[in-house]
């Protein structure tokens, strides 16, 4: 279950437990950019903010496989204390083909994989349920994805170019010429592969650059962080960060600083 309304001051997901990322094995690198696991803290449940990043993920959570579609703004999932979530982040251009679904149909949603129609879903879920130990489940999850990947087509290369342009901060208007397509075709491809247009993807990836700068900022003032991340100024950063996360830049900087100080 996912709520879109923050109940109180939210914690970024990385601050609400132990989060680990893993490089996918070679057989998966065309289709997935990261494998990851996240064990939430024990104790009273916290309001956890999953902030947008431009990606779509496949999750093992609460005994079933789910697709977490791309988000435009922060999501606030209801996850029990001590729960472990295992995930695979699709590479740019891979999710729509793998799921046989345009990502515009999955924006802001968490959907059981069985509802999308992957024929191996029931078998994979049964095998994962027989593997309750989290470390072993992470390894099995990767092996199951490798089995499925054998039958998948190559991800769309144009989508990787579009994502890289947004990630680097290069403006979208030059993309149609680089790709040899029209503005309308670019819009269709963005909505198909990312769920929204190139400008929204740029905003989200700039927000992610802001998070990266915050992790390394130390005592850097907010005005400097805004420029390093690619915002026009501090006021622009404050507006964008609030719209995408519901939090202020100062709160995010404090949370990420706490994470770094605590190791």
Overview of this protein structure:
The protein has 2 domains: 2-149, no CATH class; 157-262, Homeodomain-like (Arc Repressor Mutant, subunit A, Orthogonal Bundle). 35% of the residues are buried. It is built from 11 helices and 10 strands. The chain is globular, with a radius of gyration of 18 Å. Strand 6 and strand 7 form a beta hairpin. The two termini are 30 Å apart. Mean pLDDT is 90; it is low at 1-7 and 259-263. The chain is α+β, with helices and mostly antiparallel strands. The protein has helices at 95-99, 113-116, 121-129, 134-149, 157-168, 175-179, 183-194, 198-216, 222-229, 234-245, 249-262, and strands at residues 2-3, 11-12, 17-22, 32-40, 48-49, 57-61, 64-68, 76-77, 84-90, 110-112. The protein is 44% helix and 16% strand. The strands form 3 sheets. A 6-stranded antiparallel β-sheet has the order 3-4-9-6-7-10. The chain has a two-stranded antiparallel ribbon with strand order 1-8.
């Amino acid at each position: 279950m996912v709520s879109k309304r923050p109940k109180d001051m939210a914690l970024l997901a990385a601050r609400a437990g132990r989060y680990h990322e893993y490089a996918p094995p070679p057989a998966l690198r065309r289709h997935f950019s990261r494998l990851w696991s996240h064990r939430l803290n024990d104790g009273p449940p916290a309001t956890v903010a999953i902030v947008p990043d431009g990606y779509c993920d496949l999750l093992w959570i609460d005994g079933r496989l789910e697709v977490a579609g791309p988000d435009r703004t922060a999501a606030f999932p209801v996850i029990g204390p001590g729960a472990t979530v295992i995930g695979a982040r699709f590479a740019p251009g891979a999710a729509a083909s793998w799921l046989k679904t345009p990502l515009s149909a999955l924006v802001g949603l968490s959907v059981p994989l069985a509802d999308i129609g992957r024929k191996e879903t029931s078998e994979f879920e049964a095998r994962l349920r027989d593997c309750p130990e989290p470390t072993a489940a992470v390894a099995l999850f990767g092996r199951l994805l490798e089995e499925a990947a054998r039958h998948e087509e190559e991800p769309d290369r144009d989508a990787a170019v579009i994502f890289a342009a947004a990630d680097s901060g290069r403006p979208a208007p030059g993309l149609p010429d680089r790709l040899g397509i029209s503005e309308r075709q670019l819009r269709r491809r963005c909505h198909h592969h990312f769920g929204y247009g190139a400008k929204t993807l740029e905003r989200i990836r700039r927000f992610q650059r802001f998070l990266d700068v915050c992790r390394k900022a130390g005592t850097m003032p907010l005005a400097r962080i805004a420029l390093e991340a690619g915002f026009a100024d501090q006021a622009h950063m404050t507006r964008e960060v609030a719209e995408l996360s519901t939090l202020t830049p100062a709160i995010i900087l404090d949370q990420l600083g706490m994470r770094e100080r605590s190791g």
